Amino acid sequence: MSRWAKYIDSDPFKIIGETADKLQLETFVIGGFVRDKILNRGEAKDIDFVCKGSGIELAQAVAKALPGKPKVQVFKNFGTAMIKHNELELEFVGARKESYRANSRKPLVEDGSLEDDQKRRDFTINALAISLNEKNWGELIDPFGGLEDLENKILRTPLNPDQTYFDDPLRMMRAVRFASQLNFSIEEESFKALSRNAERLKIISKERISDELNKIILSKIPSKGFKILFNTQLLHQFFPQMVALHGVETRNGKSHKDNFYHTLEVLDNISKETDNLWLRWAAILHDIAKPPTKKFEPGIGWTFHGHEFLGSKMTTKIFRQLKLPMNEKMKYVQKLVKLHLRPIALVKEEVTDSAIRRLLFEAGDNIGDLMTLCNADITSKNEMRKKRYRDNFKKVQEKIKSVEERDHVKNFQPPVDGELIMKTFRIKPGREIGILKNAIKEAILEGEIPNEFEPAYQYMIEKAKDLNLSPVNTNKSN
Ligand code: CTP
Question: N or C, which end of the chain has less CB nearby within 10 Å?
Answer without folding.
Answer: N
